[in-house]
Amino acid sequence: IAVEPVAGMREQLQRTTPAVRILDGTAERIPLPDGELDAVVVAQAFHWFDAGAASAEIHRVLRADGGLGVIWNAWDEDVAWVARIQALVHEHVSGAPQHATSRWPQELEATGLFTPLSQETFAHVVTGDLDTLLARVASVSYISALPEAERARVLGVVAEVIAQDPETAGRDQIAMPYTTHVASCHRRTAAA
Predict the structure, then answer these.
(1) CA-to-CA dists, residue 75 to 5, 99, 123, 131, 174, angstroms
(2) Cα 166 from Cα 44, distance rounded (Å)
(3) What are 84-123's pLDDT values in tens digits?
(4) d(Cα 38, Cα 26) in Å, to the nearest integer?
(5) How far is Cα 9 from Cα 81, in angstroms, rounded to an integer?
(6) Which residues contact 115 (CB under 8 A, 6 or more apart)?
(7) What is d(CA 96, CA 113) in angstroms, rounded to the nearest whole number?
(8) Weakest-pLDDT range from 31-35, 47-51, 61-65, 101-105
(9) Rounded to whole angstroms, how far apart are CA atoms 72 and 188?
(10) β-pairing, 2-4 with 62-75?
(11) Which of 57, 67, 128, 131 is the most buried (most CB within 10 A)?
């Protein structure tokens, strides 16, 4: 079951994974009955939520001792070319919520609805061609929302960085290093 508030994203998910049940909703308004789910997984999104309201709603739809998993893939900015690309991308944040500055873990804990978070970090590499890398950069919410000419300029500069960096220049396949952050906890049956 997937819950997605954006019609275009629901349509894309339906095209690529027709066996998935896709619901129009948000983390703060999940269109499912109480205790319906064994687990909820949130990928790349908790920093967009109203953490208190989303925590209460996730708690409501989970069965007793149900699990909550939260995942982020972040570019590994210890790699020089990645840091240059991310600096360019972050010039366009314009107040958009950021995982790195979000206080969602503290806000989740403050609800008392879940056990303490267990957190782990893993290195992860995605390999793809230049078009794959550019599509990934273009998919960042505040890059995709740019006017077409500015988005094209940003992607052009990203392509230049790739063409000029010794680690990536002339390569058909580019190793895109990420750090995957995983946090998990369980539903408490009563607030602490």
Answers:
(1) 25, 12, 10, 17, 13
(2) 30
(3) 999 999 888 766 555 566 788 889 899 999 999 999 999 9
(4) 18
(5) 30
(6) 185, 186, 188
(7) 27
(8) 101-105
(9) 24
(10) unpaired
(11) 57
Question: Tokens standing for 85?
Answer: 């690309």
Instruction: Indicate the pTM of the whole model.
Output: 0.81
Tokens of 127: 């390999």
What are the DSSP calls for the chain, one per residue? -EEES-HHHHHHHHHH-TTS-EEE-BTTB--S-TT-EEEEEEES-GGGS-HHHHHHHHHHHEEEEEEEEEEEEEE-TTSHHHHHHHHHHHTT-TT---GGG--HHHHHHHHTSBPPPEEEEEEEEEEE-HHHHHHHHHTSHHHHTS-HHHHHHHHHHHHHHHHHSTTTTT-SSEEEEEEEEEEEEEB-SS--
CA distance readout (Å), 55 to 28, 51, 145, 186 = 8, 6, 28, 11
d(CA 131, CA 139): 12
